[in-house]
Amino acid sequence: MTVVIDAHNHLGGPDKGDGMTQTVDDIISRMDAAGIHKAVVFPFND
Predict the structure, then answer these.
(1) Which of 21, 27, 38, 43 is most buried, by the most CB atoms less than 10 A from its CB?
(2) What is the spatial distance between Cα 43 and Cα 38, in angstroms, rounded to a whole number?
(3) Angle at CA 1, nearest 5°, toward 31 and 41?
């Protein structure tokens, strides 16, 4: 089995640039839909 890793995701928000937010549940739902097994996440605003 090949493990698919998304190496760049943002969590939290809203983002200062475009107002986007993303929760853990949002990320997991999108990962499941795309067949991604693991993700690396960063905060929108540090």
Answers:
(1) 27
(2) 17
(3) 30
Closest CA relative to residue 9, chosen from 22, 19, 18: 22
Q: Given this model, what pLDDT does residue 13 score?
A: 85
d(CA 3, CA 13): 28
Q: What is the 3-state secondary structure (H, E, C) of 6-25?
A: EEEEEEECCCCCCCCCECHH
pLDDT at 29: 96
Here the tokens at position 27 are 């990320």
